[in-house]
Design goal:
The protein is an alpha/beta fold and 179 residues long. It has a single domain (26-174), classed as Roll (CBS-domain), CATH 3.10.580.10. It is built from 8 helices and 7 strands.
Amino acid sequence: MLYEEIVDEELAIMDESPDEPSKTLSAHEIQVPLNSLMTPPVTIEMGASAQDAINLMIDRHVGHVLIVSAGILKGIFSERDVLVKILNKPVGNLRQIPVEHFMKADPQTANVKDSLDAAILYMAKGGYRHVPVVDEENHPVGTVSVRDIISHLVEHFPQDVLTLPPKPIRRAMKSREGA
């Protein structure tokens, strides 16, 4: 079969209407308060070295740290910053460069009174994977991540999320492998 025929077949399958009605989240499932989803913040003070921030992320098994000054949120430093701004770049000794040189200053934040739908909106608009949750004085009280949202969805739709077949079911998956 020619490549073009395979692509046309897959596009036709994708255009077909699904056999089952799609599931949607109800208002009470998407308007969950962030304080029930967020994880405790992992913070580091301004002036700390980029290497200290990376070590903290490794030690705490997190993908980001919040940068604070006297307890006030100033920025966020994530594994994406390491990949884009540090890896394979001539940046010098990371033990001597302050983390604020690589952080995203004044990140989009959510308020403790916000709900899950607000965090999803912030992530979608900004392309973020982590949204700091702050109180009225801009003190970090938590973080909501894509992982937290996925966990919430799996909790409400375990069968639907965990057993999704690949779509479209590719012809290559139907054929035998091997010699």
